[in-house]
Design goal:
alpha/beta, Leucine-rich repeat, LRR (right-handed beta-alpha superhelix), 17 helices, about 10% strand
């Protein structure tokens, strides 16, 4: 009695057999579909060839042609599936199984195939264990080199995003990063200087590592300036300690201070006798009555005040600020204050000593007439003006407000000004040199109507003084505007943001790098025409290029 002996089958073969699918059934189905398609095609041709056919016959022929096309499409799909399945079957059948005897493609030695057997370098044949281990060492070295190269690219990219060089860092910076990494184990920072303290504070803010336990490291009797850029993990009790441990404090910055309360602000007003600058962002628990008490307590000591992201700073608080601090207040920043109306802002007309004003993200509050009146009052001594995201403002602010009254203006930010037109910018900057000697920092990001005429007028007026220029997402600009920047004498231009401006390409970037000797940083996020072949001068950082991938 003879028994049929079958060798081992692949998982794919077993699966197809369990579904009653084999090579013969696939072949028969394929031939049947081809025969049906040929018959349908022949029938449709005969029907279309009959003379004098009626409308019904024509419609029937059209229906048959449509059915024939559908069957042809299904036939193509079946052919593709048949080809794919046959390729898998042949590939599985051709692959040597573990235990099978083969000859080494390199040394011709006979060996038994295992799951660890490697294919030859050219893909023709297999390698024995000794030859395969030799190539395994080379592959391991190659992978190690690739990992080192990837790590280097990551470090370069990280340094570029931080606007730093990827060179060997200074010993001082390495120590600061080490301290920030193990800040929970540090007992005291000692006398490391105000600049280094601020560096550590910024690193902790970036990592959100500033907590109640690490907060005390920055406090001291002789500290005059504190800057905390992420206070989200600090409790009200910890923030109150600033008034107890830093009596000589003159300037305080608290960002994301959502847990600060009325009692903390009251404590500052009584204990910080030298405080003249306060910047708070996100203090949404502090009520208007507390701000009134704070301004009364500080009086003429407060020269700089900035507040943002709160709904509790309203008209009584603003009146108290103008009444008690208005005679000496030099810098005022109000950002995202939803509780103020256009009538409330008229109080600012009393602040005649202002040299820096920010009224940003208050779109429904600002009007052309109020801004013009404010600039008429404080414009002659104004150095910095920020009106970001005030979409209700129009060209009247440019022509009737900024141009005639802001003779000493150096920093101008009008980002997201959707109603400012190219003609308005052109009128502002054309022949403005009779009043203004030139701007240093200009931010016109997402002013979508800012075009070539306005850009050329800006460069003709401020080209010799301009240091920072942001024209991100100004879609109306063409390549000629950037050629004009390159041909002008922009010797001090060091930072340029041209992100999402599709007119900028490799040629424009190379011209700017050649003609602007002080250029150090160019941001090109979303500018898809800038490629890896662009030639940059040494020392220039290009951030956001699409081809710079890890």
């Amino acid at each position: 009695m003879f028994r049929s002996v079958r060798g081992p089958n692949s998982a794919l073969t077993e699966f197809l057999r369990s579904q009653n699918i084999d090579a013969n059934s696939i072949r028969l189905r394929y031939a049947q579909l081809q025969e049906e398609a040929a018959q349908e095609l022949h029938a449709s041709r005969e029907a279309s060839a009959e003379p004098g056919s009626s409308t019904e016959a024509v419609a029937g022929a059209a229906a048959r042609r449509l059915a024939s096309r559908r069957k042809k499409k299904k036939l193509d799909e079946d052919r593709a599936m048949h080809k794919e399945m046959m390729d898998q079957i042949h590939e599985t059948a051709a692959k040597p199984r573990p235990g099978q005897m083969e000859f080494c493609a390199e040394c011709s030695k006979r060996f038994a195939v295992s799951v660890y057997t490697k294919a030859a370098v050219d893909g023709d044949g297999l390698l024995c264990h000794s030859c395969g281990s030799k190539y395994a060492v080379e592959e391991k070295k190659q992978k190690k080199t690739q990992m080192a190269s990837r790590k280097k690219r990551k470090s370069v990219a990280a340094a570029l995003l931080d606007r730093q060089d990827a060179a060997v860092p200074k010993l001082q910076d390495m120590c600061i990063k080490l301290i920030a990494k193990y800040i929970d184990d540090v007992d005291a920072l000692g006398d490391i200087g105000e600049f280094n303290m601020e560096k550590i504070s910024r690193i902790l803010a970036r990592n959100r590592s500033l907590t109640d336990s690490t907060f005390n490291l920055f406090l001291g009797v002789n500290v005059k300036r504190l800057q905390f850029w992420d206070c989200s993990n600090l409790s009200a009790a910890s923030l109150e300690q600033i008034g107890a441990f830093c009596p000589a404090l003159e300037s305080l910055t608290l960002v994301y201070c959502g847990q600060i309360t009325d009692s903390v602000i009251d404590y500052y007003s009584t204990n910080l006798r030298n405080l003249h600058s306060l910047i708070v962002d996100g203090a949404f628990l502090v009520r208007s009555e507390c701000w009134v008490r704070f301004f009364k307590a500080l009086g003429t000591r407060l020269t700089r005040f900035s507040i943002g992201n709160t709904l509790r700073f309203n008209r009584p608080a603003l009146e108290s600020l103008a009444e008690n601090c208005g005679s000496v207040l030099e810098e005022l920043k109000l950002s995202r204050i939803g509780s103020l109306t256009s009538d409330d802002l008229t109080i600012l007309l009393r602040l005649e000593k202002l040299n820096s004003v920010e009224l940003s993200y208050m779109e429904s509050t600002l009007t052309d007439s109020f801004v013009i009146e404010l600039l008429q009052s404080v414009g002659p001594q104004l150095l910095s003006l920020n009106l970001d995201d005030c979409g209700t403002l129009s060209d009247a602010v440019l022509v009737q407000g900024i141009r005639p009254y802001c003779g000493f203006l150096q920093n101008l930010s009008l980002a997201l000004g959707s109603k400012f037109t190219d003609d308005g910018f052109s009128q502002l900057f054309t022949e403005w040199s009779e009043i203004n000697n030139g701007l240093i920092n200009v931010n016109l990001a997402r002013c979508t109507e800012f075009g070539d005429a306005g850009c050329k007028a800006l460069i003709d007026h401020s080209g010799k003084t301009l240091v920072i220029l942001n024209i991100n997402s100004d879609y109306s600009l063409s390549a000629s505007a950037f050629h004009h920047i390159a041909d002008s004498d922009c010797e001090f231009l060091s930072q340029l943001d041209v992100g999402f401006v599709q007119a900028v390409g490799d040629r424009e970037i190379e011209l700017l790098c050649q003609k602007c000797p002080s250029l150090q940083l160019v941001e090109v996020y979303g500018a898809i025409r800038i490629t890896e072949v662009v030639q940059l001068k040494p020392g220039i950082k290009l951030i956001g290029r699409q081809s710079d991938t890890l």
